[in-house]
Amino acid sequence: MSSMERILERYERYSYAERQLVATDLESQGSWTLEHAKLKVRLEVLQKNQRHFMGEDLDTLSLKELQNLEHQLETALKHIRSKKNQLMFESISELQKKDKALQEQNNLLAKKIKQIEKEEEKEKEMEQAQRAQVEQENNDLNSSSVLSQPLHSLNISGMYQAAAGPGDNDETPLENHNNPVMPPWMVRHING
């Protein structure tokens, strides 16, 4: 095959393909025009129905069309009320669950408060017992300190001196009334 024949053959193939594309474009353009017309009519019907549902342009409707519209609205209202009731019941159920959870939490907190109050009461009782014990120990120390004081701190020797008189000089040094440790009457008893 010569190069001229190849060129002509390629030209015929391309021109055939181009004719096919143009034919397809014309068919698709026609189908798009038809589709556009259908969609336009449908849009007009939907807009008309919307106006009717909104209560507008009702003058053009016959009695049967008005009854049909009323039936459609009643059906739609039933669906709306049913959905609204369902949502309300779900909301009530959710609120009841939250209420129950809050009551349980409140009960737990009340138990914790009672437990804390009992612990505080026990601590107060222990503190009072410790105070009472410390006071008892202080009282015991005070009463034992009076008994453990040396005898010379008691003023018994002055009474003996008054009873002995100035003429009694035959006392022993232990019997001396100036003995700060023991009174003379105890010393006589020990010596005697």
From TrEMBL:
Residues 120-183 are annotated as: Disordered. It comes from Rhododendron griersonianum. It comes from the Eukaryota. GO terms for molecular function: DNA-binding transcription factor activity. It holds the Pfam family K-box. GO terms for cellular component: nucleus. InterPro entries: TF_Kbox. Residues 130-158 have a biased composition (Polar residues). Residues 29-119 form the K-box domain. This is K-box domain-containing protein.
